[in-house]
Write a structure and sequence with these properties.
Number of helices: 16
Number of domains: 3
CATH class of the largest domain: Alpha Beta
Structural class: alpha+beta
Strand content: 25-35%
Radius of gyration: 24 Å
Shape: globular
CATH topology of the largest domain: Rossmann fold
Helix content: 10-25%
CATH architecture of the largest domain: 3-Layer(aba) Sandwich
Length: 599
């Protein structure tokens, strides 16, 4: 369903009421716009979205649902748009969401059943609202939902410059979308200037020209712990959730780690009945595609079956959970996932059941594995001979900044991999003997040594086709001081090899064609888009170029130190496996649809 289709009506059958004030428990009033079906005479379920991006952003979605007999409200979070109060990202939404639900349940157009809609920030605040257990919340559909501290504003305790781009987006009360959506090169140049200056990460907001108390507060808590725990549901709060939930994310959704963290935590603590009511859909989508799918994601082409009519799926879900309608036909089992290249949807009872088994590919090297053209190997046999691959990461090396800033890279772009000879290690597998479905989560166990107290590692997995073209599949990163726990720093005090478990790769489902190879690249996090670790072991946000220390990284292979990539192999297809086309296909896909929903 495109924005054009959402807006296309023969006759407007919606009554809009602008400027509704919803009172919160502390006296603050939030601003809302109500979209009512014109012939709405009997109370019915009501949907709302709570957004920092100003309610009018979702006008077309609101009219879509209202024209289909569901009253819909767009509500500005406190401190944004025409809502009163002070905006503090994420932390304020739980109580406010609860109060909105209970206020709506008392309105004459509502029958006491309230649901939520939205993705990214508006996916997160569905979980935040649910943790407050408002009695009239009937269902949530969290889409691309952040889990605070897991994928935003940091990933595995590392922070990206995008945080300040986003905080600029939601600065003040009015829309800052023109600034946020300016060309990638606009923001790239800003980040390049900061990167090349060698200034500490804590100065980024000043260099952007938007000093931010929230930014400073966030980076003053660099690891998991009590500060971040307050943003997300507790185990007890997850266990209390008894209503149906539909989680939606994508293989290339930047908030996939958060969406799946919420999903797993709920299933971990929920009662069995609630477990059975939680459904999951993982499409071949990027962040915006979880609202409006497209057939190309960062240079990757996907088939027409991927184009699910997601607004229609929402409608069917709301009808099933609140209006005694039929269960959506698309949800054949509790987990629905799309297999790229095969262009088909598959189904499983659990997320883990998607993977049939793991193939173990052992890392080995001869020659210069720091060169992509003379790489190491991914072998199904344990290497008999011990060997070591190595690279050097020098935080003072800014030679790639201008190249990175002047290019808008895609998931099929190999230029950075080829440029970083000597600054990473690369491994390739033998060609696939047959078409092979990779479905699930990669895992990498690597024996690494460093000669400094700290550094950042990133592992990326690619498919390389017979034509030499590559497709990025998944990645994970580790800051060395947090190799044992994200909740406690432990600086490295030895040059002996230590075991690093990269076990937070993102989900991927794709068929590798016969003749394709896997490529594994391990290297530093050294980018204009990321907080730079200067390797000295100090507070990373406060370190500057004066603290920089080059680090030599060694990766060990062999029987004594077996470094191994575990590759998730999908289940074989059976003749009785349910299969069906997508709910509906999308005819037009405007770039603006759903675009202002990034967290």
């Amino acid at each position: 369903m495109s924005e054009a289709a959402l807006a296309k009506v023969e006759e407007v059958d919606v009554r809009m009421q602008w400027g509704i004030k919803i009172p919160m428990r502390d006296g603050v009033q939030l601003n809302a716009t109500l979209y009512l079906p014109r012939d709405h005479h009997e109370p019915s379920p009501v949907i709302f979205t709570l957004t920092p991006y100003i309610g009018q952003t979702y006008h077309h979605f609101a009219t879509y649902f209202a024209e289909r007999k569901l009253p819909f409200l767009t509500v500005d979070v406190r401190g944004r748009g025409d809502s009163e109060g002070t905006f503090r990202p994420f932390i304020q939404e739980a109580r406010d969401g609860h109060d909105i639900v209970e206020w709506l349940a008392r309105q004459p157009y509502c029958n006491g059943k309230v649901a939520m809609w939205g993705g990214s920030y508006a996916g997160y605040n569905q979980w935040a609202t649910a943790r407050e257990a408002p009695p009239h919340l009937a269902t949530i559909v969290p889409v691309a939902s952040a889990y605070i501290s897991v994928d935003f504003p940091m990933l595995n305790n590392t922070v990206g410059c995008y945080v300040m781009q986003w905080l600029t987006y939601v600065s003040g009360r009015t829309a800052q979308d023109k600034v946020f959506w300016d060309s990638p090169q606009f923001w790239n140049r800003i980040f390049q200037r900061w990167y090349e200056s060698g200034a500490p990460f804590e100065k980024l907001d000043d260099q952007i020209g938007n000093p931010s108390a929230i930014f400073q507060e966030w980076i003053s808590h660099p690891e998991q712990g009590g500060y971040w725990d307050q943003y997300n549901p507790s185990s007890e709060e997850y266990s209390r959730l008894q209503f149906p939930i539909l989680t939606i994310t994508g293989s290339y959704d930047g908030d996939q780690p958060g969406a799946l963290k919420h999903y797993r935590e709920h299933l971990r603590y929920a009662a069995k009945e609630a477990d059975l009511q939680h459904y999951l859909v993982i499409g071949p989508w990027d962040h915006g595609g979880t609202r409006i799918p497209k057939t190309e994601i960062g240079g990757i082409k996907v088939g027409p079956e991927s184009l699910v009519d997601l607004p229609k799926l929402h409608l069917q879900w709301y009808a099933w959970t609140m209006q005694a309608g039929d269960k959506p036909a698309f949800l054949k089992k509790r987990v629905t996932y799309y297999v790229m290249v095969a262009d088909r949807w598959r189904y499983a009872d659990t997320l883990d059941a998607i993977t049939d088994h793991f193939d173990a590919y052992y890392l080995s090297a001869s020659g210069n594995s720091a060169d992509v053209l003379h790489s190491g190997f991914l072998d199904l046999r344990v290497p008999v001979t011990a060997s070591v691959s190595r690279y050097v990461y020098d935080p003072k090396d800014i030679s790639g900044a201008a190249f990175e800033a002047s290019n808008d890279f895609s998931y099929t772009d190999q230029r950075l991999v080829y440029r970083l000879v000597g600054k990473q290690v690369v491994y390739h597998s033998s060609p696939c003997e047959r078409d092979t479905e990779i479905s699930g989560f990669f895992k990498l166990r690597a024996w690494l040594s460093i000669d400094q107290p700290d550094t950042d590692f990133e592992a990326n997995v690619y498919e390389v086709g017979l034509d030499g073209k590559s497709v990025w599949l998944s990645s994970d990163r580790i800051r060395a001081r947090y190799r044992e726990s994200l909740r406690e720093a432990n600086l490295i005090q030895t040059t002996d090899p230590l075991l690093y478990d990269f076990d937070r790769f993102t989900f991927i489902s794709r068929v590798l064609k016969q003749g394709s190879r896997l490529r594994l690249v391990i290297g530093p996090v050294n980018s204009i888009h990321a907080q730079r670790n200067f390797n000295s072991g100090g507070v990373v946000a406060k370190e500057s170029i004066q603290d920089a220390r080059p680090v030599e990284v060694k990766l060990f292979h062999g029987r004594e130190h077996p470094s191994v990539l575990h590759v998730p192999i999908g289940r074989p297809c059976s003749s009785d496996e349910p299969s069906a086309p997508a709910t509906a296909l999308i005819s037009t896909l405007p770039p603006s649809a759903g675009s202002s929903t990034y967290a």
